[in-house]
Amino acid sequence: MSTSSQAQDVARRLYDAHETFKEKALTHRRFKHADMVPLLKSLTGPLSVSQVSESLEKRAIYQVKAGTGATKVLLWSQMHGDEATATMAMFDIFNFLRAENDGFDALRQAILSKTTLYFVPMLNPDGAERFQRRTATDIDMNRDALRLQTPEGSLLKNLQQILQPLVGFNLHDQNPRYSVGKTGKQAVVSFLATAYDEDRNVNDVRQRSMQLIVGMNRVLQQFVPGQIARYDDEFEPRAFGDNIQKWGTTLILIESGGFKGDSEKMAIRRLNFVAILTALQAIADVSYKQEDIAGYQAIPENGRALFDVLIRNATIMREGRPVLVDVGINYNEVNDKAAKTFQYKSIIDDIGDLSTFYGLEEIDATGLTLTPAYVYPDTLDSITELAKLDLPALRRDGIVAFKVQKAPKETFPGQAVHVVNEGELPALPLQLEQIPTFLLKKGNQIQYRFVNGFWKDDKSTIGGHQNGVID
Asked: Least CB-packed of 20, 126, 234, 383 within 10 Å?
């Protein structure tokens, strides 16, 4: 069996066995530093845990070390506090490295004997607390590689300078609406061998990045065919990835994108688990040297953003005349006060000729007219009065909007309804940035009832999150 075929086989076995190693305490992306610390402190076996720094707000930043090999590898996640997919995958890898007698002992031993691994999960714990990209200083740490004004950024540079690892894994999440080139397929994972200079030259250090990515792309294609992309490699002089490559450590950027129907990114967590472990195997046995970097350039670049929903060929009425438009809708996550969960607040992102775009979900509205939704005739005192109404019957009649006198904006209704607290109902007329609540009608017959960008009558939630909205 060829080396690449062996890697494919190992990847398939890891993929199938992932549930065995999955850290069961991590079930959603918005876990906090306090949720992670007990998991770190419970690690044993070939793993050792130490505190290596602290954040601006005095949260401990930990390093997990494994292996005794000569080749050093540094992996860090959640440089951006709201990009938690790879942190979950790291804990799955910790469980894998601690296991035994499961058919993976040879792989485990190869990695631990040939490499020394240094993991830094949740590099930005203050950002994770708020589930925001930036640190508590409101600085984007990935633009702080030169000034080093964040303690977290200073730590990362110090680790690279002291350890001088052969390879570094910079683990991120990207916009889930990127496509794979112009295919219209969602980019589930994107890779990048960062540039180290403006001319994007390729030296031995960057070539190794490309070779490792070629291998990871190959093994992941069997699980998400046609849904792996390559991030733009324009040189960013302030970024850690570009500078670490320049400082002599081979840098691999992994961006976790989106996977339809998987808002908490459990499927992409699994792909991270497989990609990282197979790459570590390639580093341990140096099999990456057999890869042709032409395979890296052949990976399609991230394409223009998709829409969550794209309505094609709808008719709207403006100044008494029909206008044919496409409507692009995106779902935006809104954190609750504690940033532990979220609800969706959707917007109309674009209107017009969107024939060069794609939607994760599409509706052909040819022959349909987009009109405002109907409003319940009485003003309710509070949201709780919705429970007294026959909402399914009202919905069938196109009544999905309700005026309420007392409707705190930080709450969400428990039904797929649009609560109007002040102002007018959207779609009078249809405009950019509106909340997409409207009807699509064929003559007098209602074909689709949209509330906050969702239209499936039998569901008030998606991915466990309510679709109703207060405006």
From this structure: 234
User: Smallest Cα–Cα separation from 77: which of 11, 29, 41?
Assistant: 29
Distance of CA 241 to the CA centre of its chain: 19
Handedness of CA 386, 392, 397, 398 (dihedral sign): positive
Indicate the pairing of strand 307-318 with strand 228-230: unpaired
Q: Is 87 helix (H, G, I), strand (E, B) or coil?
A: helix
Q: How many residues belong to the chain?
A: 471
Q: 103 exposed, middle or buried (CB, 10 Å; 0-12, 13-18, 19+)?
A: exposed
Q: What is the pLDDT of residues 173-190, one digit of tens each?
A: 999 999 999 999 999 999
Q: Bin 352: left if φ > 0, else alpha if -120 < ψ < 50, else beta.
A: left
This prediction's pTM: 0.94
> Residue 3: what pLDDT?
78
Read off the pLDDT of residues 428-458 as tens digits, 9 standing for 90 and up: 788 999 999 999 999 999 999 999 999 975 4
